[in-house]
Amino acid sequence: MKKWYGGVLTTSLLMFLVLGYCVMRKPVKESYVTSSVYFNMTNPLEWINAMAPPAAHQPEKITQVISAEIVVSDLFIKRNLSAQEQQSLSTWYQLKRLVTHDQVLPNAIEAVKEASVAWNNLMSAVEREKLDANDSSVKTGKQKQCPHFLSKTNATEIDASGFKLRFPCGLTQGSSITIIGIPNGLLGNFRIDLTGEPLPGEPDPPVILHYNVRLHGDKITEDPVIVQNTWTIAHDWGEEERCPLPSDEKSKKVDELEQCNEMVGNVITRHVIATNKSSLAQDGSKSRKYFPFKQGYLSVATLRVGSEGIQMTVDGKHITSFAFRETLEPWLVSEVRISGDIKLISVVASGLPTSEDSEHISDLEALKAVPLPPRKRLDLFVGVFSTANNFKRRMAVRRTWMQYDAVRSGQVAVRFFVGLHKNQMVNEELWNEARTYMDIQLMPFVDYYSLIAWKTIAICVFGTEVISAKFVMKTDDDAFVRVDEILSSMQRINVTRGLLYGLINSDSHPHRSPDSKWFISPEEWPEETYPPWAHGPGYVVSSDIAKTISSKQRKGRLKMFKLEDVAMGIWISEIKKKGLEVKYEKEERIFNEGCRDGYVIAHYQGPREMLCLWQKIEEKKRALCCGE
């Protein structure tokens, strides 16, 4: 018995040692979720309440390297799709060489990799939907997946992971998040993070905006400070932006608003009734440094998405602006996370991207694209840049300038060019929208600003190879286009070859400041000036130029450049060197920013403005702007 007991004890001890050795060599996964996004080591005090240690960043061990050919093969597998569904993929397969080989643009590989994941998930959902439709025992009810409004009241309890509110379909320009709460606790420090979706195999999501309020300062200052930043698994923390600004830093403007309100951190004086003479100045006024948040006091803070960045207002005052950074656009946001020393009262998100329910649209047939006439050459093809969750903008275009007689008669065709989204719900809504209206061309990559030149190429492909149009036009989904005036201008100019029509810029220089949204390094463009180009809200090229661009990309001979409107100018310049006589027709009635009476194209128009402009054209028969 003793021998048996001793044998068991020896065996157990040996097993324990072997297990311990294995755990040391390959530790058991931690019980907590790695949360490297919450550990900005620029300030140790910031994380005093954190429950878990910072995760070690070893991207080379986390992200598996996948060749472009393997990734692309998933995107271009033939699917069991109907003829109607195939219409939204007319340029998809013709861009295979482009997305496989021309990956010199920033974020190209990431965009294709992310698109592969998104496309496989979307196609799986489409297959399930078809199976359920054929199964009479399965009752399927179409539910709206993208809400316009979300709220969470009585959000007083924040657990170890903080408060979270998900946005099923991301954010878009005009979206806002209002947070009502009271900074409390030992330090009163809290943080707001707008996060995206992590890719498979990546433990943490990207942080599109990290908004950190430090009421008792940090290692740089003892005064209260707001720190804004971004985080990705590939690049870790970016360069932080502080408010108040450091003394040696100049304030920048985002959406015409200051990066940091000059009031923050400066002494403000207010007149009070004297109760304690020792705390008052000689003139009976009381002075203190202004900071928008105060420990123990209620604050109403609103983050609002603009066209260039995210603005923060507190109690009605503009406080900070934060410009979007490359690959971290607002449509990527899937969740807001709030943590730290704050007692939350409520969180409300409004202006969220949502699609219209086609079952409740009375004029649905009038909004669907007119079937393309076979073997008929169109006068004009218009390709519209759009982002997946810009549902309202596309509907506004359908209800307004896509109702011109020339469009409804088939003389002019209009299509939206839309990249895939990283969010499954958005892609499903987009797919249903494409099937309903038949005016969307899906792109085999995820939308990033640095890749919009790929869409320009796709527009040229569609306008010359999918259909045949005399002229090909590019515009944006926030631009109002007077189609009738574009056609009249083409007749007036009376040029059918070598034409670039638009707001021509003949003397522009590359932006060499890394802080600029349009930054171009000498490696990308070594010359001091660009060739003539037309501003992006809208320009027209003749079919010979569009056909040459389509042909050159198919043969891999097209120089890639991330600024799409400038890229068109560069491509035309190269064609010109081969002997083409180019006519640059400048149109002063194309307004790059805003609207002026008599416009041909008015840019930066929201859905309400678009509807208003169309109403004025129908009623007044004139191109009059809305508002004051």
Automatic annotation (TrEMBL):
<dbReference type="GO" id="GO:1901137">
    <property type="term" value="P:carbohydrate derivative biosynthetic process"/>
</dbReference>
<dbReference type="InterPro" id="IPR001079">
    <property type="entry name" value="Galectin_CRD"/>
</dbReference>
<dbReference type="GO" id="GO:0000139">
    <property type="term" value="C:Golgi membrane"/>
</dbReference>
<protein>
    <submittedName>
        <fullName>Beta-1,3-galactosyltransferase GALT1</fullName>
    </submittedName>
</protein>
<keyword id="KW-0732">Signal</keyword>
<keyword id="KW-0808">Transferase</keyword>
<feature type="domain" description="Galectin">
    <location>
        <begin position="163"/>
        <end position="350"/>
    </location>
</feature>
<dbReference type="InterPro" id="IPR013320">
    <property type="entry name" value="ConA-like_dom_sf"/>
</dbReference>
<keyword id="KW-0735">Signal-anchor</keyword>
<dbReference type="InterPro" id="IPR002659">
    <property type="entry name" value="Glyco_trans_31"/>
</dbReference>
<keyword id="KW-0325">Glycoprotein</keyword>
<keyword id="KW-0333">Golgi apparatus</keyword>
<keyword id="KW-0464">Manganese</keyword>
<comment type="pathway">
    <text>Protein modification; protein glycosylation.</text>
</comment>
<dbReference type="GO" id="GO:0030246">
    <property type="term" value="F:carbohydrate binding"/>
</dbReference>
<keyword id="KW-0472">Membrane</keyword>
<feature type="signal peptide">
    <location>
        <begin position="1"/>
        <end position="20"/>
    </location>
</feature>
<dbReference type="GO" id="GO:0008378">
    <property type="term" value="F:galactosyltransferase activity"/>
</dbReference>
<comment type="similarity">
    <text>Belongs to the glycosyltransferase 31 family.</text>
</comment>
<keyword id="KW-0328">Glycosyltransferase</keyword>
<dbReference type="Pfam" id="PF00337">
    <property type="entry name" value="Gal-bind_lectin"/>
</dbReference>
<dbReference type="Pfam" id="PF01762">
    <property type="entry name" value="Galactosyl_T"/>
</dbReference>
<keyword id="KW-1133">Transmembrane helix</keyword>
<keyword id="KW-0812">Transmembrane</keyword>
